[in-house]
Design goal:
- By secondary structure, the protein is mostly helical.
- The chain contains 3 helices and no strands.
- The longest helix has 24 residues.
- It is globular.
- It comes from Hymenobacter properus.
- This is Antitoxin VbhA family protein.
Length: about 90
């Protein structure tokens, strides 16, 4: 079984909710595995956004928008201290 980057499902979910959550978690884990095959693991901030999607708090579209905004704020010219930190994967 593949390692999961996400917290376990909370108790009390209906079978339908659990199935939907497992599907989101599977997709998110597969995405991380693909990213890590070519680079570093996602940042803790990106994983927190993905956790919100896995938990069903936000849609995948919202997760993408939040991740894009986070990366723009971090890496746009003139942002922060001008660090040359490597670009972390989503």
């Amino acid at each position: 079984m593949m390692k999961s980057f996400f917290t376990p499902a909370p108790a009390g979910l209906t079978p339908e909710q659990l199935t939907a959550r497992q599907e989101r978690e599977r997709h998110a884990n597969n995405s991380i595995a693909i990213l890590m095959s070519n680079g570093p693991a996602p940042s803790p901030e990106a994983l927190a956004i993905m956790q919100r999607h896995v938990d069903g708090e936000i849609s995948i579209e919202e997760a993408i928008e939040l991740t894009d905004a986070m990366l723009l704020a971090r890496y746009r010219p003139g942002a922060g201290s001008g660090s040359t930190e490597p670009n972390h994967a989503r």
